[in-house]
Amino acid sequence: MKAIGLPILAASLLATSSLALEPITIKGSKFFHADGSQYFMKGIAYQRSPFDPLLDKKQCQLDADLMKQLGANAIRVYHVDPDGNHDDCMKIFEDIGVYAFIDLDTFHTYIEQDGPPHWNETQLTEYTKVLDNLAGYSNLGGVFVGNEIITRSNGSFAAPYIKAAVRDIKAYMEEKKFARKIPTGYSAADIAELRPNLQNYLACGDDSSVNVDFFGLNAYEWCGEATDYHVSGYDMLNKNATDYPVPIFFSETGCNVPTPRDFKDQFAIFGPEMRDVWSGAIIYEWIQEDNNYGLVDYGRADPKTAIGGDTWARGGKPTPLPDFTVLKSVWSSVTPSGISKDKYTSTNGPISCPASTSGIWNVDPTSALPTLGQTAVFAEASGDPVERDSTATTSTGAPAETSRPNSAGKVVVVLNSCFMAAVLAVAVLL
Fold this sequence. Notes:
Family: Belongs to the glycosyl hydrolase 72 family.
Distance between the termini: 29 Å
Membrane topology: Lipid-anchor; GPI-anchor
InterPro entries: GH, Glucanosyltransferase
Largest sheet: 8 strands, parallel, barrel
Structural class: alpha/beta
CATH architecture: Alpha-Beta Barrel
Pfam families: Glyco_hydro_72
Number of strands: 15
Region (Disordered): 381-406
Strand content: 5-15%
């Protein structure tokens, strides 16, 4: 593990002293503002730039002005530059009351479902670089150790590596004596066969040092006027989360079939059906791309300067699309009051770890978590439950180069081979 460098620490202290928005806190299964009022997330997936959208002060200001009109109070950013200066953009978003939820992984350090799964010193070091860079900002709402690592029903064997990452990130903050412990969680793909085993596994037992502080679900089940609370399956999502001991929210949502979207799921999420259990939602996504999930449009990219065949501009003056107008109207109509922190007593005690079930949940709840540097054995990667040897040692080298399933639930940026070749070519020239 690496120490916090003095320049980073100094920048963190400076950022903390200049910000007025106080950190949100967690009590039981809910988020709270500093004044004790409950925090409900109205968030936007904000990955305008493939590698870091929080470096361009002018662009952040243009986007923040519109997000304020929209009523957003959170952004989710999937990739940031651990060496970049985020003071300006974090301050701009702080000024409009927006908390940032940041993924710690990079395109080369995410925990793989296949390959097989591993968690090593190289990955941890890169995760902590991102954490060190952002920890000083009081509007850092939380960090994700991964996004959609498990993408198929028989991929549960990767779950212990997610939990091992949570354990080591929390241990790092403890070792380095962080001024506050940054909430740490995971964002899951919505795989029906794994519900609710995965969310329960990541928060089961009474050892908070290894459990997630929050759980995010990427769900795209509520589609169009023909869908409702029951048809979408939201009723079952709510039932499965009723006794969850930590905050749970939609870390991506916003089905775009048909278009324009009506966002009627927000009435359920923030309404009497779900607001006692769920802490809000992050809408996918801010920027218009070929996937047609955008709330704003920067226009088409100049084909002479576009990299990797990207046809959409990734910056400039944002023009609201019809979905923006609809979401603005919906969010202005849903204002859940929640419960005050001093009147809230969590009744959700520790939950049991799901039992291993062949072909459904291939994780033995009695097995030790992987040690730092451990790689899944062949049987485990094949989907068979195994007895994990906590003393095993394996290579701690960098993870193998593989193509990532999605950098976000519906592909934030398609990094095809041409794009990566261009990036590598630039790197060689530098």
